[in-house]
Design goal:
The protein is α+β, with helices and mostly antiparallel strands. The chain contains 4 helices and 15 strands. The strands form 3 sheets. Strands 1, 2, 3, 5, 6, 8, 9 and 12 form an 8-stranded mixed beta sheet that branches. Strands 11-10-14-15 form a 4-stranded antiparallel beta sheet, with no helix packed on it. The chain has a 3-stranded antiparallel beta sheet with strand order 7-4-13. A hairpin with a 2-residue loop joins strand 10 and strand 11. The relative contact order is 0.28. The structure holds magnesium ion. Magnesium ion (MG) binds near residues 59, 61 and 182.
């Protein structure tokens, strides 16, 4: 199982990231990177802020679960490779990311650490959500205050385009998870925070920061 994360997939967040870290927006293809399976944080378990970062940010993202093996999938058939979505938090050590971007270094240090990929215990069938992955709204609240609203209609690269692109390079396997990018509104987490994320009015994530 692999965790594939898409960067800069919402225009407003891409601009926000320019201010936070520098770097450049993608052209033609999505930006993507991997997290190892040890990054998963499941069952709404608490997230412990790691000692190596002074600035860990939340990034709430729609997560697509792959349900068939595929390689070089064309965009028009991509829909056959998923039927469930969940929510995740792509925890990011923003201070280490800034350093990586400055020096042109890989992102694993700031993105792939243990428990950096919170994942909802439950996935929801797309059929039950209207069937169109590009017509969903998801939200993140912290301590009851709304911080992020994602409208999948605003993705720069659609889920089907992402699958077509990724599968040119890597075989997609059953159970692979695609974190599809975060909307604007990212920010730091602090011990004592409670994160709650929903698709529509269905709460899928609810866990604490320690
Ligand atoms: Mg992200």
């Amino acid at each position: 199982m692999k965790i594939i994360c898409i960067g800069r997939n919402y225009a407003a967040h891409s601009e926000e990231l320019d201010r936070l870290t520098g770097g450049a927006a993608p052209e033609g293809e999505p930006v993507w990177f991997l997290k190892p399976d040890t990054a998963l944080l499941r069952n709404n378990d608490p997230f412990y802020i790691p000692s190596f970062s002074q600035e860990v940010h939340y990034e709430c993202e729609l997560v697509v679960k792959i349900n068939r093996v595929g390689k070089s999938i064309s965009e028009r058939f991509a829909r056959r490779y998923y039927d469930e979505v969940g929510l995740g938090i792509d925890f990011t050590a923003r201070d280490l990311q800034r350093e990586a971007v400055d020096k042109g270094l890989p992102w694993e240090r700031c993105k792939a650490f243990d428990h950096s990929a919170a994942l909802s215990p439950e996935f929801v069938r797309l059929e039950g959500l209207g069937g169109n992955v590009q017509n969903l709204e998801f939200t993140l609240d912290i301590n009851g205050e709304r911080r992020q609203v994602g409208r999948t209609s605003e993705m720069l690269f659609s889920v089907d385009q992402i699958i077509a692109c990724l599968s040119q390079y890597m075989t997609l396997k059953i159970g692979d998870l695609i974190y599809t990018g975060t909307p604007a509104g990212v920010g730091p987490v602090h011990p004592g925070d409670t994160l709650s994320a929903s698709i529509g009015d269905r709460e899928l994530l609810n866990f604490d920061i320690r």
